[in-house]
Design brief:
This is Bifunctional adenosylcobinamide kinase/adenosylcobinamide-phosphate guanylyltransferase. Pfam families: CobU (PF02283). Keywords: Kinase, Nucleotidyltransferase, Transferase. GO terms for molecular function: kinase activity; nucleotidyltransferase activity. It is built from four helices and six strands. The protein is of the alpha/beta class. It has a six-stranded mixed β-sheet with strand order 2-3-4-1-5-6, sandwiched between helices. α3 runs parallel beside α4. The radius of gyration is 14 Å and the shape is globular. It starts with a strand and ends with a strand.
Length: 130
Amino acid sequence: MHVFIGGAYSGKTDYVMNLLADQKVELVDGYVPDDTPASDVLVIKNLEKWLVTQDLEDDEVIVRTILTRLKILEENCALYIIVTDMGRGVVPMEKQARLLRDTCGRLYQALFAEAEHVVRIWYGIGEQIK
């Protein structure tokens, strides 16, 4: 598993797609697919879109569920995950926004622990951090 993180509109998707330009890639936006992809490489981006549809009060279950599904997918293809950095010390005033930020933080920690490579993207430039 390869994870790429950066702020919104920081060039993450372009960076990953350029990295994989010579491969057949399936790109999914905002969810974790249930089925094995038709290609050898699966890129998943914007997991936070799916997270906002979940009960974020029980984030441990959400993190375990996502990791389990990703590990199953990884058995059948190369897996690239693109996530948006939502932290940076800013705590939202709205409860749901705080829950999303906290769940993303816990999910990202788990993803980074499992990932073979982690790259931070700033303005389209990648910096390998793992």
